[in-house]
Design brief:
Elements lengths: L5 E6 L5 H11 L6 H7 L8 E7 L5 E14 L2 E13 L8 H11 L8 E4 L3 H9 L4 E11 L2 H7 L7 H14 L9 E6 L4 H10 L5 E4 L3 H9 L7 E7 L4 E10 L2 E9 L5 H14 L4 E7 L5 H6 L3 E13 L7 E2 L9
Parallel strand pairs: 4-5, 8-14, 11-12
Antiparallel strand pairs: 1-2, 2-3, 3-4, 3-8, 5-13, 6-12, 6-13, 7-9, 9-10, 10-11
């Protein structure tokens, strides 16, 4: 049972905006206040749903969970999903069942909100409670690394032997991985700050690719998710033919000299080699030590990326989901941008 005087409410209202921001300051210090309005406005799939634990005595929000609507497509058919996030509880009411009640309320909202499925990439603290709430089906995620500065990782592993020749060999090997294939030699890369209707033309092609589940990549979605995001700064590289035809794009951020890919989209798999080669050039020029990618093990793009030098690091991560019970049989083109940011 909930502690006396607390209730769980489901709302989209801005009534609790200041109280939610106050809890962010308590549990997630540094979260920009503008994130609330960003979640409420601009997402083509709809405003974020809030599930709040409210103290009836003073109106304070002492726990939150959110559900961000997300459009996905499979063989051109629209699927309505939701990303679970903002799971936090004030220290004043922890270990009193508040988190469990919030997560159960989110799980039970699937039918009411007419969503096909909801999902979350949990941390260790929330995983057990989410499973108990019924968000208990699992897909596996994996982190991958493409080293750019091999000497950095060589030193990080703690090797002190005088084998400079090995470092030079690995650097040269990385250069081999960055070579264009013949089909990509007549292509170029450009840096842009936003997305226009040209992206929508590309998206119409990509979303019709058969037997791949993929989240919406319309210009409206991309501009909201990345160009107006108050939390992180993103960079966009577009890949084109010399005549200007858009073939694909990469969205990424750079933190602590590490480049993290959030989106990697192309109309054909053969262009990924050239796109990664150009991204690696960018990384070397900007003193990046490595390119990181988090994706599902069944992402059809992964084969092409492994061939370009990405290799798995760390243990398996999980996506927990509820609904669409045949999800695990689908190839999901999942990237970091498909998580709650």
């Amino acid at each position: 049972m909930l502690p006396a005087g607390l209730s769980i409410i489901h709302t989209r209202s801005v009534k609790y905006k200041d109280k939610i921001i106050q809890l962010w300051g308590e549990c997630l210090p540094g979260t920009p206040e503008g994130r609330f309005d960003w979640l409420a406005k601009g997402n083509p799939a709809g405003p974020t749903e809030w599930f709040l634990a409210v103290d009836e005595n003073n109106g304070n929000v002492v726990g939150t969970g959110s559900l961000m609507p997300k459009e996905l497509f499979y063989n051109g058919i629209r699927i309505k999903g939701g990303i679970v996030g903002d799971l936090m509880v004030s220290p004043t009411v922890r270990k009193q069942g508040v988190a469990q009640h919030i997560q159960r309320r989110i799980s039970d909202s699937l039918v009411k909100l007419e969503m096909d499925f909801l999902y979350v990439v949990p941390n260790d603290k929330s995983k057990k409670l989410l499973v108990q709430a019924g968000i208990d089906h699992v897909l596996l995620l994996k982190d991958y690394l493409l080293p750019v500065d091999f000497e950095h990782y060589y030193k990080k592993l703690g090797f002190n032997l005088p084998v400079k020749f090995l470092f030079n060999f690995l650097q040269n090997l990385g250069g081999v991985f960055s070579v264009h294939t013949s089909s990509d030699e007549q292509c170029t890369i450009s840096v842009v700050s936003n997305f226009n209707e040209e992206i929508d033309d590309l998206w119409e092609i990509v979303k019709e690719i058969q037997n791949i589940l993929i989240g919406s990549r319309s210009s409206a979605y991309l501009n909201w998710k990345y160009c107006r995001n108050p939390v992180s700064d993103f960079r966009i590289l577009q890949y084109r033919t010399l005549s200007g035809v858009l073939l694909g794009y990469i969205i990424f951020s750079v933190t602590n000299s590490k480049l993290h890919i959030f989106e990697l989209i192309s109309i054909k798999s053969k262009y990924y080699a050239g796109m990664i080669a150009e991204l690696r050039k960018f990384a070397k020029t900007n003193q990046v030590v490595g390119i990181y990618l988090c994706t599902t093990k069944n992402n059809p793009v992964l084969k092409a990326l492994r061939w370009r030098g990405f290799f798995p690091i760390g243990g398996d991560l999980q996506i927990l989901y509820k609904g669409e019970m045949f999800m695990e049989k689908r190839a999901w083109a999942f990237f970091e941008g498909d998580r709650n940011i």
